[in-house]
Amino acid sequence: MTLLNTILPEHRRGKLKTLLEEGKTVRVLEAHNGLSGIIANSAEVTGDSDGKTVVRQFDAIWESSLTDSASKGHPDIEVITFDSRLHTINEILAVTDKPMIVDGDTGGDANTFEYTVSKLERAGVSAVIIEDKVFPKRNSLEAGVQQNLQEPEVFAQKIRRGKSVQKSSEFMIIARIESLIAGKPMEDALNRATQYLQAGVDGIMIHSKSKSPDEILEFAKKYQVILKDLKLNKPLVCVPTTYNLITEDELRAAGFNIVIYANHLLRSAYQAMTETAKTLLRNQRSLEVDPLCVPVREIFKTVGFLDVKEKDQQDEQTTNTPVIIPAAGEDPVFKKILNGKPKAMLEIGGKTLLDHQIQTLSNANLADITLIAGYGKDNLHAEGISILENPDYQKGSMLNSLMVAKEKMANGFIMLYSDILMEDHILSKLTESKEDVVLVADNSTQYHQPEEGNILDYIISKNHYKPTRREIRFISENTVAQIGNKINPETATHEFIGLARFSKTGAEQFLETYNDVLKNFTGPFQESEDISKLSFTDLIQEMIDRGFAIHYMEIHKGWLEIHNTDHIALAQKSFSA
Ligand code: SPV
Ligand code: MG
User: Fold this and answer.
1) CA nearest 508: which of 431, 406, 400?
2) Interval 4-35: pLDDT, tens
3) Structural domains of the chain in order of their starting residue, each with its CATH number
4) CA pair distance 388, 325, nearest whole angstrom
5) Phi-psi bin for 498: left (phi > 0), alpha (psi -120 to 50), beta?
6) Residue 445 has pLDDT above 80, yes or no
7) Is 141 in the pocket of ligand 1 (CB under 6 A)?
8) Separation of 140 CA from ligand 1 center, angstroms?
9) Is 170 in the pocket of ligand 1 (CB under 6 A)?
């Protein structure tokens, strides 16, 4: 169900009357369930007329007894109960905002009809059309079927009873004359029209199953005379199913105000479904039916599933995403300065590296921070964050430390290397990303040589482009083809800065891949000489190889990694600036 077209009954009901009062010829299309209702409500063609753009749509929806019954596998003989019809009617009303005209069949007896009017009006239906046949009626289109007409006086009284119970002035009761269907003369039809108009009906539908429009055109001409005599102005309705050469313009010129295409969505769906079923049988696989089918995603879009996905993603982003900082390893470069303390405690500009990170995270509303400690854990000091321990920090890679916080990952998470500092905008942009796995990737790597002895995580972008051609790029089209520290810097397009965001789905994919790799592989794996040394980038590469989309968010500088004393000086300089 899509919530796009929701409308209150009181806002919909009067729309049909308004269209008619505006002098519009109302174009109506049949619907038999929610999905066909959405199509009738939203189908649109755009064209050009005298240099002006013209948009054409249907104005209203016909809830047909023929197609409602047929879609339930039943004949159109009033065997589908009114409650079932009302269920379909409400299903369509829930996903549309255009006026609805309900095919009320005979309306039952006068008492039954009163309840029908009351329920339809309350639901927001704009009009009901009842036909002057005896309950239970037979569909009008099949030749050779016995058609029993109701006495016009009895039918006129049913109209009066219906009009007497409606609460609003907007709801319309339209009388459908079946004389021509039952093989009666034109006089009978005209006589009935007069009686029904005198009973207070809001419009007349003249039905015909002739291939030629002649008889309804003759009726329309004489109907104008009746209206004139009675000093009334009541709309005239037709259902051009059999006389289908005539155009809307011609019907309008003949005096018709409402044109109903009464069964075409169901009939076309039936044809397409039958063809699909047979094509599957012929081929014993489904490839050949693909051209006969819309992509699943189009259905998702139509029924609002893509909206749901987007809202879920927004919720996920606005709920506080946990941040995991693996910081267990011992740093050989700063061994002396740190003197038994972990690297996170490195002092930069009067604050620890960790405090700088906590500050940046809190600027992006990220307060759920978990740090994985190992080396020097007793000398780790930080407020307002959780600390977990990786006792085996000397054995594995940073990935092992990250996995200590597995429990934190279930609803998505952000991973941050413990030795990087960055400008605020990077994190806020990352938290807004919609993709399932997003790595932050710097493109300035293309312009400078890596420093000696510094091992960097490189990325090769899937959609190669010239870095010099600066243009707007969307994360959704930035996908990673390759990641790792053994990639030739010359071929790399980006450097992974050590910051990544995983959605709930992304986290599931990440954990599933991790568990599967550990269970099923031994020895060298991706860039690692042994599975026990599996790194974060190895696992991401494995996800890529398994077909998961790994996106990157491109940045240009604005961050620093603290790998040597020069970096500390640089950081101090930028903080004082
Ligand atoms: C319907 O669509 O159910 C109708 C029109 O009543 S017809 O089938 O032509 O009678
Ligand atoms: Mg019908």
Assistant:
1) 406
2) 788 999 999 999 999 999 999 999 999 999 99
3) 2-41+53-271 (3.20.20.60), 319-576 (3.90.550.10)
4) 10
5) left
6) no
7) yes
8) 7
9) no
Number of C-beta neighbours around residue 571 at 10 A? 19
Nearest to 413 by CA among 329, 316, 312, 549: 316
Instruction: Summarize the confidence of residues 451-464 as an average pLDDT.
Output: 80
Amino acid at 561: E
Ligand 1 within 6 A of 64 CB? Answer: yes
Q: What is the β-pairing status of strands 347-348 and 351-352?
A: antiparallel
Which amino acid is present at 19? L
Which residue, among 307, 563, 558, 533, has the nearest Cα to 451 in the 3D structure?
563
**CA–centroid distance, residue 73 to ligand 1 (Å):** 16
Ligand with smallest separation from the Cα of 29: 1
- Residues taking part in catalysis: 76
Largest interatomic CA distance in the chain: 111
Contact of 232 with 199, CB cutoff 8 Å: no
Q: Which of 326, 498, 341 is nearest to 421 (CA)?
A: 498
Q: Determine if ligand 1 sits within 6 Å of the CB of residue 445.
A: no
CA dist., res. 546 & res. 459, Å (int): 17
Q: What is the dihedral of CA 287, 291, 292, 298, to 10 degrees?
A: 100
Ligand nearest to the CA of 260: 1
Q: Is the pLDDT of residue 577 over 80?
A: no
Give residue for tokens 């879920």: 312
C-alpha to C-alpha distance for 305 and 197, rounded to whole angstroms: 47
Q: What would the pLDDT profile of 259-276 be if each residue is shown by its tens digit? A: 999 999 999 999 999 999
Give per-residue pLDDT as tens, 298-322. Answer: 999 999 999 998 888 777 666 779 9
Q: Annotate 193-227 with b (16+ C-beta within 10 A) or e (fewer).
A: bbbbbebebbbbbbbbbeeebebbbbbbeebeebb
Q: Report the atom number in ligand 1 closest to the C-alpha of 131.
A: 6
Listed in order, strand segments (DSSP E) in 156-303 are: 172-177, 203-206, 236-238, 258-261
Instruction: Check: pTM over 0.70? Answer yes or no.
Output: no
119: left (phi over 0), alpha (psi -120 to 50) or beta: alpha
* CA 262 / ligand 2 centre spacing (Å): 8
406 close to 326: Cβ distance less than 8 angstroms: no
pLDDT at 446: 64
